[in-house]
Write a structure and sequence with these properties.
With 207 residues, this protein is an all-alpha fold. 69% of the residues lie in helices and 0% in strands.
Length: 207
């Protein structure tokens, strides 16, 4: 079982998310090139020193916001029954990328805006790819635990990569258009589900 975060850790995470939201708003409004760490800190109501305690660069500040979906996705997978989780992924993708309340719609709108901004910003793209790399690494460990000792380690890696890239590609394709900006119509879920079906074809954990 995972350790429950301490109060200090929860407060730190909340502060990071507030800074991330402030950064996302400013990036969307002005473009990343025109935004400074100082302006993000001021918008988030923290000192510049506090900002740099949490983040190395202004682009790094959006990492926690982009990682929100990955954390939800990892927790949902970890709660699955032991065994080959391949068949579980389509339902998980639909659940994670189809918002059911205002908070989830807002989170997808943030992601939509950030990915559109990142399309023309290499530094933001680096943050996005790092978030996906970290998510894939965590998924690999979860899949291995669910599948058990008999699973082929390479197939575990393939499944983790397929699942991560399905989400990434689905979100990027969705963000590139103007349709369904908060995910309510199911566009990102449908795109990611389609990507997973193709990317995971032929993978067999052998558990």
């Amino acid at each position: 079982m995972e350790r429950t975060p301490t109060l200090t850790e929860r407060r730190k995470a909340a502060t990071q998310l507030e800074i991330a939201k402030a950064a996302a708003v400013r990036f969307a409004e002005h473009g990343a090139d025109q935004v400074t760490a100082e302006s993000i800190a001021a918008a988030a109501g923290v000192s510049l020193r506090t900002f740099y305690r949490y983040f190395r660069t202004k682009e790094d500040a959006v990492g926690p916001l982009l990682a929100v979906g990955a954390v939800t996705w990892q927790a949902a997978l970890a709660a699955s029954a032991p065994g080959d989780p391949t068949a579980v992924f389509p339902e998980l993708i639909a659940r994670v990328l189809t918002p059911v309340d205002d908070a989830e719609r807002e989170a997808l709108r943030w992601t939509h805006g950030l990915l559109r901004t990142a399309a023309d910003d290499p530094a933001l793209q680096t943050v996005w790819h790092r978030v996906n790399h970290d998510s894939e690494t965590r998924l690999r460990a979860i899949i291995a635990e669910l599948a058990g000792d008999g699973a082929d380690p390479f197939e575990v890696r393939l499944l983790a990569a397929a699942a991560t890239d399905a989400i990434r590609l689905g979100l990027e394709q969705w963000a590139a258009g103007d349709e369904d900006p908060d995910g309510s119509a199911g566009v990102p879920a449908a795109l990611a589900g389609r990507a997973f079906a193709q990317l995971s074809s032929g993978i067999s954990l052998g558990a």
